[in-house]
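Q: Convert this sequence to structure tokens.
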Amino acid sequence: MMFMAVFLNSGGGVVRDDDTQEIKMKELGEFESKELAIDNACEDLRCRHVTRGVIIRANNTGGYMVCDTQEFAEL
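A:
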């Protein structure tokens, strides 16, 4: 399944592009499970998992929400 990391601001809100208003995200790739996608995202993005696919930066200045394509479509 394809996974992506949605950018979150320091308040936990979804970050959108200023011009297009599209949700900012980074494609993570295909993984067998969400847990594997989260582990990979933590390593690649230098974050730590806090809960339910939400990973935060070390300095607590925002982070990412790891989701699959179906979850992303619901945003």
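The mean pLDDT is 93.
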